[in-house]
Amino acid sequence: MAANRFNAFTDYGIGIGLRAPHYRHILSRKPVVDWFEIISENFMIDGGRPLHILDQILGQYKVVQHGVSMYFGSAEKPDREHLRRLKELVKRTKTPWLSDHLCWGSVDGRYTHDLLPMPYTFEAARLTAQKVREVRDFLEIPIAVENVSSYAEFHVSEMTEWEFLNEVVEQADCGILLDVNNIYVSSQNHDFDPLTYVNSVPAERVAQIHIAGHSKFEKYILDTHDHPVLDPVWKLYERAIQRAGHTATLLEWDDSIPSFQEVHREALKANRFLADTTLAVAV
Amino acid sequence: MKLLTLQRAVARAVMQPLTLSERMQRTAPGGGRMSAYAARYIRPNDRLTSFERLEIYNRQYWFRVLGSMAEDFPGLRAILGQPRFEDMCRAYLAECPSRSFTLRNLGARIETWLRRNPKWIRGQQTLALDMVRLEWADIEAFDGEAEPALQLKDLNGSSAATLRLRVQPYVQLLELHYPVDDLALKVREDDDADFASNTLTENRKSAKIQAVAALEPRQIFLVVHRIDFHVYFRRIEYEEYALLSALRSGKTIESAIELAFQSSSMSEFDRGGYLRNCFQTWATLGWFCRPEEIHAR
Hints:
The complex is a heterodimer. By secondary structure, chain A is an alpha/beta fold. Chain A contains 10 helices and 12 strands. In chain A, about 35% of the residues lie in helices and about 20% in strands. Chain A is globular. Chain B is built from 13 helices and 3 strands. The relative contact order of chain B is 0.09. The chains are: A alpha/beta, B mainly alpha. Chains A and B meet through helix 2, strand 5, strand 6 and helix 4 of A and helix 1, helix 3 and helix 7 of B.
Protein backbone atom coordinates (compact mmCIF):
# COMPACT_ATOMS: atom_id res chain seq x y z
CA MET A 1 0.00 0.00 0.00
CA ALA A 2 1.33 3.42 -0.91
CA ALA A 3 2.06 5.88 1.90
CA ASN A 4 1.53 8.70 -0.57
CA ARG A 5 1.52 9.23 -4.33
CA PHE A 6 5.29 9.75 -4.36
CA ASN A 7 5.92 6.82 -2.07
CA ALA A 8 4.30 3.86 -3.73
CA PHE A 9 7.03 1.53 -2.53
CA THR A 10 6.50 1.14 1.18
CA ASP A 11 7.61 -2.48 0.85
CA TYR A 12 11.12 -1.18 0.14
CA GLY A 13 12.08 -1.15 3.87
CA ILE A 14 15.74 -0.49 4.59
CA GLY A 15 18.41 -0.50 1.93
CA ILE A 16 22.12 0.14 1.77
CA GLY A 17 24.37 1.64 -0.87
CA LEU A 18 25.98 -0.91 -3.18
CA ARG A 19 29.73 -0.38 -2.86
CA ALA A 20 32.66 -2.23 -4.47
CA PRO A 21 34.28 -3.51 -1.24
CA HIS A 22 31.08 -5.47 -0.53
CA TYR A 23 30.60 -7.07 -3.96
CA ARG A 24 32.26 -10.36 -3.05
CA HIS A 25 30.35 -10.72 0.21
CA ILE A 26 27.00 -9.96 -1.40
CA LEU A 27 27.46 -12.28 -4.35
CA SER A 28 28.89 -15.18 -2.38
CA ARG A 29 26.83 -14.96 0.83
CA LYS A 30 23.63 -13.54 -0.65
CA PRO A 31 22.63 -11.70 2.55
CA VAL A 32 19.00 -10.73 3.00
CA VAL A 33 18.78 -7.01 2.16
CA ASP A 34 15.57 -5.18 1.31
CA TRP A 35 17.17 -3.24 -1.55
CA PHE A 36 20.36 -1.68 -2.83
CA GLU A 37 20.88 1.86 -3.99
CA ILE A 38 23.42 2.27 -6.80
CA ILE A 39 25.24 5.39 -7.90
CA SER A 40 23.98 5.65 -11.47
CA GLU A 41 27.19 7.18 -12.86
CA ASN A 42 29.23 4.13 -11.79
CA PHE A 43 27.22 2.00 -14.20
CA MET A 44 26.66 4.39 -17.11
CA ILE A 45 29.37 2.64 -19.08
CA ASP A 46 29.54 0.42 -22.13
CA GLY A 47 30.49 -2.90 -20.54
CA GLY A 48 32.89 -4.75 -18.27
CA ARG A 49 32.89 -5.83 -14.66
CA PRO A 50 30.67 -3.13 -13.12
CA LEU A 51 27.75 -4.03 -15.40
CA HIS A 52 28.41 -7.76 -14.92
CA ILE A 53 28.22 -7.29 -11.14
CA LEU A 54 25.12 -5.14 -11.49
CA ASP A 55 23.36 -7.79 -13.57
CA GLN A 56 24.04 -10.39 -10.89
CA ILE A 57 22.72 -8.05 -8.20
CA LEU A 58 19.65 -7.29 -10.29
CA GLY A 59 18.96 -11.01 -10.53
CA GLN A 60 18.63 -11.26 -6.77
CA TYR A 61 17.80 -7.87 -5.29
CA LYS A 62 15.69 -4.78 -5.79
CA VAL A 63 17.82 -1.85 -6.99
CA VAL A 64 17.12 1.88 -6.96
CA GLN A 65 19.19 4.42 -8.87
CA HIS A 66 20.69 7.48 -7.23
CA GLY A 67 22.61 10.02 -9.30
CA VAL A 68 25.32 12.50 -8.40
CA SER A 69 25.77 14.59 -11.54
CA MET A 70 22.44 15.48 -13.11
CA TYR A 71 22.77 18.89 -11.45
CA PHE A 72 19.12 19.86 -11.62
CA GLY A 73 20.12 23.32 -10.40
CA SER A 74 22.76 24.08 -13.04
CA ALA A 75 21.61 26.88 -15.31
CA GLU A 76 22.60 24.94 -18.42
CA LYS A 77 20.50 22.37 -20.27
CA PRO A 78 20.85 18.68 -19.34
CA ASP A 79 23.73 16.90 -21.09
CA ARG A 80 22.19 14.74 -23.86
CA GLU A 81 24.84 12.03 -23.61
CA HIS A 82 24.26 11.84 -19.86
CA LEU A 83 20.52 11.49 -20.37
CA ARG A 84 20.93 8.85 -23.08
CA ARG A 85 23.19 6.71 -20.92
CA LEU A 86 20.97 7.22 -17.89
CA LYS A 87 17.92 6.05 -19.81
CA GLU A 88 19.79 2.92 -20.93
CA LEU A 89 20.61 2.17 -17.31
CA VAL A 90 17.04 2.85 -16.19
CA LYS A 91 15.86 0.24 -18.70
CA ARG A 92 18.42 -2.22 -17.37
CA THR A 93 17.69 -1.76 -13.66
CA LYS A 94 13.95 -1.05 -13.94
CA THR A 95 14.43 1.31 -11.02
CA PRO A 96 10.99 2.26 -9.66
CA TRP A 97 12.12 5.85 -9.08
CA LEU A 98 15.29 7.84 -9.61
CA SER A 99 16.86 10.39 -7.34
CA ASP A 100 19.51 13.08 -7.73
CA HIS A 101 20.49 16.20 -5.86
CA LEU A 102 18.97 19.63 -5.54
CA CYS A 103 22.23 21.36 -6.37
CA TRP A 104 24.41 22.52 -9.22
CA GLY A 105 27.90 21.45 -10.23
CA SER A 106 28.54 22.28 -13.84
CA VAL A 107 28.59 25.47 -15.86
CA ASP A 108 29.39 26.05 -19.54
CA GLY A 109 30.03 22.31 -19.93
CA ARG A 110 32.69 22.23 -17.18
CA TYR A 111 32.08 19.86 -14.29
CA THR A 112 33.18 20.39 -10.69
CA HIS A 113 32.04 16.90 -9.63
CA ASP A 114 30.75 18.44 -6.44
CA LEU A 115 27.27 19.09 -5.07
CA LEU A 116 27.31 22.89 -4.91
CA PRO A 117 24.57 24.68 -2.96
CA MET A 118 21.83 26.61 -4.73
CA PRO A 119 21.08 30.28 -4.35
CA TYR A 120 17.53 30.11 -2.97
CA THR A 121 15.90 32.44 -5.48
CA PHE A 122 12.61 32.22 -7.35
CA GLU A 123 14.48 32.23 -10.68
CA ALA A 124 16.61 29.27 -9.56
CA ALA A 125 13.53 27.40 -8.31
CA ARG A 126 11.75 27.91 -11.63
CA LEU A 127 14.73 26.80 -13.75
CA THR A 128 15.43 23.83 -11.50
CA ALA A 129 11.83 22.65 -11.57
CA GLN A 130 11.79 22.97 -15.34
CA LYS A 131 14.88 20.77 -15.58
CA VAL A 132 13.43 18.17 -13.22
CA ARG A 133 10.36 17.98 -15.45
CA GLU A 134 12.46 17.65 -18.61
CA VAL A 135 14.50 14.82 -17.11
CA ARG A 136 11.39 13.04 -15.83
CA ASP A 137 9.68 13.34 -19.21
CA PHE A 138 12.74 11.95 -20.98
CA LEU A 139 13.33 9.08 -18.54
CA GLU A 140 9.64 8.34 -18.01
CA ILE A 141 10.01 7.46 -14.33
CA PRO A 142 9.25 9.30 -11.07
CA ILE A 143 12.00 11.64 -9.85
CA ALA A 144 12.89 12.50 -6.27
CA VAL A 145 15.21 15.41 -5.51
CA GLU A 146 17.56 15.24 -2.55
CA ASN A 147 18.49 18.13 -0.27
CA VAL A 148 22.30 18.48 -0.01
CA SER A 149 24.52 19.40 2.91
CA SER A 150 26.18 22.78 2.43
CA TYR A 151 28.94 24.96 3.77
CA ALA A 152 28.03 28.25 2.12
CA GLU A 153 24.95 30.44 1.62
CA PHE A 154 24.46 33.14 -0.97
CA HIS A 155 23.57 36.79 -0.41
CA VAL A 156 21.05 36.63 -3.25
CA SER A 157 18.88 33.99 -1.53
CA GLU A 158 15.27 35.08 -1.19
CA MET A 159 13.99 32.23 1.01
CA THR A 160 15.12 29.45 3.34
CA GLU A 161 16.44 26.16 2.02
CA TRP A 162 13.26 24.29 2.92
CA GLU A 163 11.11 26.95 1.27
CA PHE A 164 13.26 26.57 -1.84
CA LEU A 165 12.91 22.79 -1.76
CA ASN A 166 9.14 23.12 -1.44
CA GLU A 167 9.01 25.64 -4.26
CA VAL A 168 10.94 23.32 -6.58
CA VAL A 169 9.01 20.13 -5.82
CA GLU A 170 5.65 21.90 -6.09
CA GLN A 171 6.54 23.44 -9.46
CA ALA A 172 8.09 20.21 -10.76
CA ASP A 173 5.45 18.04 -9.10
CA CYS A 174 8.13 15.56 -8.05
CA GLY A 175 9.09 13.61 -4.96
CA ILE A 176 11.67 14.33 -2.27
CA LEU A 177 14.58 12.22 -1.16
CA LEU A 178 14.86 13.63 2.33
CA ASP A 179 18.42 13.35 3.64
CA VAL A 180 18.10 13.93 7.37
CA ASN A 181 21.87 13.84 7.86
CA ASN A 182 22.26 16.63 5.29
CA ILE A 183 19.60 18.64 7.11
CA TYR A 184 21.50 18.22 10.36
CA VAL A 185 24.88 19.14 8.80
CA SER A 186 23.46 22.25 7.13
CA SER A 187 21.58 23.27 10.28
CA GLN A 188 24.83 23.30 12.22
CA ASN A 189 26.68 25.15 9.47
CA HIS A 190 23.96 27.74 8.95
CA ASP A 191 22.40 28.01 12.41
CA PHE A 192 18.82 26.93 11.85
CA ASP A 193 16.64 24.46 13.71
CA PRO A 194 16.72 21.15 11.80
CA LEU A 195 13.30 20.18 13.16
CA THR A 196 11.80 23.27 11.54
CA TYR A 197 13.18 21.98 8.24
CA VAL A 198 11.79 18.45 8.72
CA ASN A 199 8.43 19.84 9.84
CA SER A 200 8.22 22.16 6.83
CA VAL A 201 8.76 19.58 4.14
CA PRO A 202 5.56 18.39 2.42
CA ALA A 203 5.37 14.90 3.94
CA GLU A 204 3.15 13.72 1.13
CA ARG A 205 6.06 14.11 -1.30
CA VAL A 206 8.72 12.19 0.64
CA ALA A 207 9.60 9.22 -1.52
CA GLN A 208 12.78 8.10 0.23
CA ILE A 209 14.97 8.99 3.20
CA HIS A 210 18.78 8.99 3.48
CA ILE A 211 20.63 8.55 6.73
CA ALA A 212 24.42 8.81 7.14
CA GLY A 213 27.27 9.81 9.41
CA HIS A 214 29.24 13.06 9.36
CA SER A 215 32.42 14.57 10.82
CA LYS A 216 32.76 17.56 13.13
CA PHE A 217 35.53 20.09 12.56
CA GLU A 218 36.35 23.11 14.64
CA LYS A 219 34.24 25.58 12.71
CA TYR A 220 31.90 23.46 10.62
CA ILE A 221 30.51 19.97 10.04
CA LEU A 222 31.39 17.99 6.94
CA ASP A 223 29.14 15.42 5.32
CA THR A 224 31.71 12.61 5.14
CA HIS A 225 29.57 9.43 5.10
CA ASP A 226 32.32 7.66 7.03
CA HIS A 227 30.71 7.14 10.43
CA PRO A 228 27.68 5.49 11.99
CA VAL A 229 24.57 7.66 12.17
CA LEU A 230 24.70 10.05 15.12
CA ASP A 231 21.89 10.54 17.66
CA PRO A 232 20.68 13.97 16.49
CA VAL A 233 20.26 12.52 12.99
CA TRP A 234 18.25 9.57 14.33
CA LYS A 235 15.99 12.07 16.10
CA LEU A 236 15.35 13.85 12.80
CA TYR A 237 14.74 10.51 11.14
CA GLU A 238 12.20 9.60 13.81
CA ARG A 239 10.35 12.83 13.19
CA ALA A 240 10.48 12.43 9.41
CA ILE A 241 9.02 8.95 9.69
CA GLN A 242 6.29 10.18 12.03
CA ARG A 243 5.31 12.70 9.37
CA ALA A 244 5.82 10.75 6.14
CA GLY A 245 4.85 7.26 7.27
CA HIS A 246 6.70 4.09 6.35
CA THR A 247 9.30 5.26 3.83
CA ALA A 248 12.09 3.51 1.94
CA THR A 249 15.22 4.30 3.93
CA LEU A 250 18.84 4.05 2.91
CA LEU A 251 22.11 4.25 4.83
CA GLU A 252 24.97 5.92 2.94
CA TRP A 253 28.50 4.86 3.90
CA ASP A 254 31.03 5.92 1.27
CA ASP A 255 34.38 6.35 2.98
CA SER A 256 36.34 4.18 5.44
CA ILE A 257 33.78 1.54 4.53
CA PRO A 258 33.56 -1.21 7.16
CA SER A 259 32.42 -4.78 6.61
CA PHE A 260 29.11 -5.44 4.93
CA GLN A 261 27.68 -6.78 8.19
CA GLU A 262 28.59 -3.62 10.07
CA VAL A 263 27.03 -1.34 7.46
CA HIS A 264 23.90 -3.46 7.30
CA ARG A 265 23.61 -3.62 11.10
CA GLU A 266 23.82 0.17 11.25
CA ALA A 267 21.14 0.55 8.58
CA LEU A 268 18.79 -1.85 10.33
CA LYS A 269 18.73 0.40 13.39
CA ALA A 270 16.15 2.37 11.41
CA ASN A 271 13.74 -0.45 12.19
CA ARG A 272 13.36 0.99 15.70
CA PHE A 273 11.40 3.80 14.12
CA LEU A 274 9.87 2.14 11.09
CA ALA A 275 8.36 -0.71 13.09
CA ASP A 276 6.08 1.62 15.03
CA THR A 277 4.94 3.53 12.03
CA THR A 278 1.62 3.27 10.34
CA LEU A 279 1.25 4.31 6.73
CA ALA A 280 0.54 7.79 5.47
CA VAL A 281 0.38 9.82 8.62
CA ALA A 282 1.14 13.29 7.40
CA VAL A 283 1.33 15.48 10.49
CA MET B 1 21.77 38.42 -10.13
CA LYS B 2 21.09 35.80 -12.79
CA LEU B 3 21.64 32.17 -11.83
CA LEU B 4 24.09 31.62 -14.68
CA THR B 5 26.17 34.67 -13.72
CA LEU B 6 26.45 33.51 -10.14
CA GLN B 7 27.31 29.94 -11.10
CA ARG B 8 30.03 31.10 -13.52
CA ALA B 9 31.59 33.31 -10.86
CA VAL B 10 31.53 30.65 -8.15
CA ALA B 11 32.77 27.88 -10.46
CA ARG B 12 35.73 30.04 -11.54
CA ALA B 13 36.76 30.42 -7.91
CA VAL B 14 36.11 26.78 -7.01
CA MET B 15 38.19 25.55 -9.95
CA GLN B 16 41.05 28.02 -9.48
CA PRO B 17 44.22 26.15 -8.45
CA LEU B 18 45.15 26.05 -4.77
CA THR B 19 48.35 27.53 -3.35
CA LEU B 20 51.36 25.32 -2.64
CA SER B 21 50.12 24.92 0.93
CA GLU B 22 46.77 23.73 -0.46
CA ARG B 23 44.79 26.81 0.52
CA MET B 24 42.61 29.05 -1.63
CA GLN B 25 44.54 31.74 -3.50
CA ARG B 26 44.43 35.30 -2.14
CA THR B 27 44.00 36.62 -5.67
CA ALA B 28 40.61 36.18 -7.31
CA PRO B 29 40.06 34.92 -10.86
CA GLY B 30 40.70 37.90 -13.12
CA GLY B 31 42.59 39.78 -10.39
CA GLY B 32 41.57 41.59 -7.22
CA ARG B 33 41.32 40.22 -3.71
CA MET B 34 39.69 36.85 -3.30
CA SER B 35 38.25 37.91 0.06
CA ALA B 36 36.30 40.68 -1.71
CA TYR B 37 35.31 38.32 -4.53
CA ALA B 38 33.97 35.74 -2.07
CA ALA B 39 32.18 38.40 -0.03
CA ARG B 40 30.29 39.55 -3.12
CA TYR B 41 28.52 36.20 -3.36
CA ILE B 42 28.76 34.35 -0.06
CA ARG B 43 27.39 35.20 3.35
CA PRO B 44 29.80 34.87 6.27
CA ASN B 45 28.66 33.47 9.61
CA ASP B 46 29.96 33.90 13.15
CA ARG B 47 32.59 31.17 12.61
CA LEU B 48 33.62 31.41 8.97
CA THR B 49 34.31 34.31 6.63
CA SER B 50 33.00 34.28 3.06
CA PHE B 51 36.54 33.42 1.96
CA GLU B 52 36.72 30.42 4.30
CA ARG B 53 33.33 29.10 3.21
CA LEU B 54 34.26 29.30 -0.45
CA GLU B 55 37.63 27.74 0.33
CA ILE B 56 35.93 24.55 1.57
CA TYR B 57 34.57 23.98 -1.95
CA ASN B 58 37.81 25.07 -3.65
CA ARG B 59 39.81 22.52 -1.64
CA GLN B 60 37.22 19.78 -2.05
CA TYR B 61 37.33 20.25 -5.82
CA TRP B 62 41.10 19.93 -6.07
CA PHE B 63 41.38 17.04 -3.62
CA ARG B 64 38.74 15.18 -5.59
CA VAL B 65 40.17 15.68 -9.08
CA LEU B 66 43.78 15.17 -8.03
CA GLY B 67 42.77 12.01 -6.18
CA SER B 68 41.03 10.74 -9.27
CA MET B 69 44.09 11.39 -11.46
CA ALA B 70 46.38 9.65 -8.97
CA GLU B 71 44.07 6.65 -8.94
CA ASP B 72 43.92 6.43 -12.74
CA PHE B 73 47.61 7.11 -13.49
CA PRO B 74 49.72 5.44 -10.76
CA GLY B 75 52.39 4.48 -13.30
CA LEU B 76 52.82 8.04 -14.54
CA ARG B 77 53.00 9.18 -10.92
CA ALA B 78 55.78 6.66 -10.28
CA ILE B 79 57.71 7.92 -13.30
CA LEU B 80 57.37 11.62 -12.50
CA GLY B 81 57.43 11.37 -8.71
CA GLN B 82 54.59 12.62 -6.55
CA PRO B 83 55.39 16.38 -6.49
CA ARG B 84 55.99 16.67 -10.25
CA PHE B 85 52.95 14.50 -10.99
CA GLU B 86 50.71 16.74 -8.89
CA ASP B 87 52.09 19.91 -10.48
CA MET B 88 51.51 18.41 -13.90
CA CYS B 89 47.94 17.38 -12.99
CA ARG B 90 47.16 20.87 -11.67
CA ALA B 91 48.35 22.41 -14.93
CA TYR B 92 46.45 19.82 -17.00
CA LEU B 93 43.20 20.25 -15.08
CA ALA B 94 43.46 24.04 -15.11
CA GLU B 95 43.65 23.89 -18.91
CA CYS B 96 41.45 20.83 -19.47
CA PRO B 97 38.81 20.75 -16.73
CA SER B 98 36.33 17.89 -16.74
CA ARG B 99 33.79 18.11 -19.53
CA SER B 100 32.07 14.86 -18.68
CA PHE B 101 29.47 13.91 -16.09
CA THR B 102 31.82 11.17 -14.91
CA LEU B 103 35.29 11.37 -13.37
CA ARG B 104 36.11 8.27 -15.39
CA ASN B 105 36.87 10.55 -18.35
CA LEU B 106 39.02 13.05 -16.45
CA GLY B 107 42.26 11.81 -18.02
CA ALA B 108 40.89 11.38 -21.53
CA ARG B 109 42.86 14.33 -22.93
CA ILE B 110 46.10 13.94 -21.01
CA GLU B 111 48.13 12.25 -23.76
CA THR B 112 47.30 15.01 -26.25
CA TRP B 113 47.91 17.66 -23.63
CA LEU B 114 51.31 16.23 -22.67
CA ARG B 115 52.36 16.14 -26.32
CA ARG B 116 51.52 19.86 -26.47
CA ASN B 117 53.18 20.55 -23.13
CA PRO B 118 56.29 18.32 -23.06
CA LYS B 119 57.99 20.37 -20.33
CA TRP B 120 56.07 18.36 -17.74
CA ILE B 121 57.72 15.12 -18.85
CA ARG B 122 61.07 16.50 -19.99
CA GLY B 123 63.82 13.88 -19.83
CA GLN B 124 61.27 11.04 -19.72
CA GLN B 125 59.00 12.00 -22.56
CA THR B 126 58.78 8.70 -24.41
CA LEU B 127 58.53 6.63 -21.25
CA ALA B 128 55.86 8.90 -19.74
CA LEU B 129 53.78 8.97 -22.92
CA ASP B 130 53.99 5.18 -23.20
CA MET B 131 52.73 4.87 -19.63
CA VAL B 132 49.89 7.35 -20.18
CA ARG B 133 48.75 5.42 -23.24
CA LEU B 134 48.88 2.13 -21.34
CA GLU B 135 46.96 3.50 -18.35
CA TRP B 136 44.29 5.07 -20.52
CA ALA B 137 44.01 1.81 -22.50
CA ASP B 138 43.54 0.03 -19.18
CA ILE B 139 40.55 2.26 -18.37
CA GLU B 140 39.04 1.69 -21.82
CA ALA B 141 39.57 -2.07 -21.62
CA PHE B 142 38.02 -2.24 -18.15
CA ASP B 143 34.59 -0.90 -19.09
CA GLY B 144 34.61 -0.80 -22.88
CA GLU B 145 31.82 -2.37 -24.88
CA ALA B 146 31.88 -6.11 -25.61
CA GLU B 147 29.84 -7.27 -28.57
CA PRO B 148 28.73 -10.91 -28.98
CA ALA B 149 31.87 -12.89 -29.79
CA LEU B 150 32.51 -14.57 -33.13
CA GLN B 151 31.77 -18.28 -33.28
CA LEU B 152 33.24 -20.81 -35.67
CA LYS B 153 29.89 -21.38 -37.37
CA ASP B 154 29.68 -17.67 -38.21
CA LEU B 155 32.49 -18.20 -40.70
CA ASN B 156 30.79 -20.91 -42.77
CA GLY B 157 31.16 -20.12 -46.46
CA SER B 158 33.22 -16.99 -45.82
CA SER B 159 36.18 -16.09 -47.97
CA ALA B 160 39.36 -14.42 -46.69
CA ALA B 161 39.28 -12.18 -49.73
CA THR B 162 36.05 -10.51 -48.65
CA LEU B 163 35.60 -11.26 -44.94
CA ARG B 164 36.18 -8.40 -42.53
CA LEU B 165 36.56 -9.35 -38.89
CA ARG B 166 35.81 -6.68 -36.34
CA VAL B 167 37.97 -6.48 -33.21
CA GLN B 168 36.05 -6.06 -29.94
CA PRO B 169 35.74 -2.39 -28.93
CA TYR B 170 37.28 -3.06 -25.49
CA VAL B 171 40.45 -4.61 -26.98
CA GLN B 172 43.23 -1.99 -27.02
CA LEU B 173 46.28 -2.32 -29.29
CA LEU B 174 49.48 -0.53 -28.35
CA GLU B 175 52.90 -0.10 -29.90
CA LEU B 176 55.24 1.02 -27.13
CA HIS B 177 58.89 2.02 -26.89
CA TYR B 178 59.37 0.80 -23.33
CA PRO B 179 58.14 -2.35 -21.55
CA VAL B 180 55.89 -0.19 -19.38
CA ASP B 181 53.54 -3.10 -18.75
CA ASP B 182 56.12 -4.57 -16.36
CA LEU B 183 56.52 -1.23 -14.63
CA ALA B 184 52.76 -0.70 -14.34
CA LEU B 185 52.33 -4.12 -12.74
CA LYS B 186 55.21 -3.47 -10.33
CA VAL B 187 53.72 -0.12 -9.31
CA ARG B 188 50.30 -1.65 -8.69
CA GLU B 189 51.76 -4.51 -6.73
CA ASP B 190 53.57 -2.00 -4.52
CA ASP B 191 50.51 0.22 -4.15
CA ASP B 192 48.44 -2.78 -3.04
CA ALA B 193 51.10 -3.71 -0.51
CA ASP B 194 51.31 -0.10 0.70
CA PHE B 195 47.59 -0.18 1.27
CA ALA B 196 47.96 -3.35 3.33
CA SER B 197 50.90 -2.17 5.39
CA ASN B 198 52.23 1.35 5.78
CA THR B 199 55.41 0.19 7.48
CA LEU B 200 56.93 -0.84 4.17
CA THR B 201 55.98 2.30 2.29
CA GLU B 202 59.41 3.92 2.22
CA ASN B 203 61.17 0.74 1.05
CA ARG B 204 58.58 0.28 -1.63
CA LYS B 205 58.89 3.87 -2.80
CA SER B 206 62.59 3.38 -3.39
CA ALA B 207 61.89 0.04 -5.11
CA LYS B 208 59.51 1.86 -7.44
CA ILE B 209 62.12 4.52 -8.22
CA GLN B 210 64.68 1.80 -8.93
CA ALA B 211 62.23 0.05 -11.23
CA VAL B 212 61.72 3.24 -13.19
CA ALA B 213 65.43 4.00 -13.35
CA ALA B 214 66.25 0.47 -14.53
CA LEU B 215 63.77 0.49 -17.39
CA GLU B 216 65.63 0.31 -20.71
CA PRO B 217 63.90 1.20 -23.96
CA ARG B 218 62.66 -1.84 -25.85
CA GLN B 219 59.91 -1.84 -28.45
CA ILE B 220 56.95 -3.99 -27.48
CA PHE B 221 53.51 -4.65 -28.92
CA LEU B 222 50.75 -5.06 -26.40
CA VAL B 223 47.09 -5.96 -26.26
CA VAL B 224 45.17 -4.66 -23.26
CA HIS B 225 42.11 -6.86 -22.99
CA ARG B 226 39.93 -8.56 -20.44
CA ILE B 227 39.06 -12.10 -19.46
CA ASP B 228 36.23 -12.78 -17.05
CA PHE B 229 35.93 -9.02 -16.49
CA HIS B 230 39.54 -8.60 -15.35
CA VAL B 231 42.01 -6.57 -17.42
CA TYR B 232 45.18 -8.25 -18.65
CA PHE B 233 48.23 -7.13 -20.64
CA ARG B 234 49.28 -9.56 -23.36
CA ARG B 235 52.46 -9.01 -25.33
CA ILE B 236 52.25 -9.93 -28.98
CA GLU B 237 54.64 -9.99 -31.93
CA TYR B 238 54.86 -7.28 -34.55
CA GLU B 239 53.01 -9.39 -37.16
CA GLU B 240 50.11 -9.94 -34.76
CA TYR B 241 49.95 -6.24 -33.97
CA ALA B 242 50.00 -5.28 -37.64
CA LEU B 243 47.34 -7.86 -38.48
CA LEU B 244 45.00 -6.88 -35.65
CA SER B 245 45.48 -3.17 -36.41
CA ALA B 246 44.65 -3.76 -40.08
CA LEU B 247 41.53 -5.75 -39.15
CA ARG B 248 40.46 -3.01 -36.76
CA SER B 249 40.83 -0.44 -39.52
CA GLY B 250 38.36 -2.43 -41.64
CA LYS B 251 40.66 -4.35 -43.99
CA THR B 252 39.63 -7.78 -45.26
CA ILE B 253 41.49 -10.76 -43.80
CA GLU B 254 43.41 -11.18 -47.04
CA SER B 255 44.58 -7.54 -47.13
CA ALA B 256 45.35 -7.56 -43.41
CA ILE B 257 47.58 -10.60 -43.80
CA GLU B 258 49.39 -8.98 -46.71
CA LEU B 259 50.01 -5.87 -44.63
CA ALA B 260 51.12 -7.85 -41.60
CA PHE B 261 53.87 -9.64 -43.47
CA GLN B 262 55.00 -6.72 -45.65
CA SER B 263 58.10 -6.07 -43.56
CA SER B 264 58.22 -9.39 -41.76
CA SER B 265 61.28 -11.64 -41.77
CA MET B 266 59.13 -14.74 -41.19
CA SER B 267 59.51 -17.37 -43.91
CA GLU B 268 56.57 -18.09 -46.19
CA PHE B 269 56.66 -21.66 -44.96
CA ASP B 270 56.08 -20.71 -41.33
CA ARG B 271 53.30 -18.22 -41.96
CA GLY B 272 50.42 -20.67 -42.39
CA GLY B 273 50.87 -22.37 -39.02
CA TYR B 274 51.59 -19.02 -37.35
CA LEU B 275 48.38 -17.48 -38.65
CA ARG B 276 46.29 -20.50 -37.69
CA ASN B 277 47.66 -20.33 -34.19
CA CYS B 278 47.06 -16.57 -33.93
CA PHE B 279 43.45 -16.70 -35.09
CA GLN B 280 42.71 -19.67 -32.83
CA THR B 281 44.10 -17.85 -29.80
CA TRP B 282 42.32 -14.59 -30.55
CA ALA B 283 39.03 -16.33 -31.20
CA THR B 284 39.39 -18.26 -27.93
CA LEU B 285 40.02 -15.00 -26.11
CA GLY B 286 36.86 -13.58 -27.70
CA TRP B 287 38.64 -10.69 -29.41
CA PHE B 288 36.47 -10.78 -32.55
CA CYS B 289 32.86 -9.63 -32.79
CA ARG B 290 30.22 -11.57 -34.65
CA PRO B 291 29.76 -10.09 -38.14
CA GLU B 292 27.05 -7.43 -37.94
CA GLU B 293 24.67 -9.17 -40.38
CA ILE B 294 24.69 -12.35 -38.25
CA HIS B 295 24.39 -10.39 -35.00
CA ALA B 296 21.37 -8.55 -36.41
CA ARG B 297 19.67 -11.82 -37.27
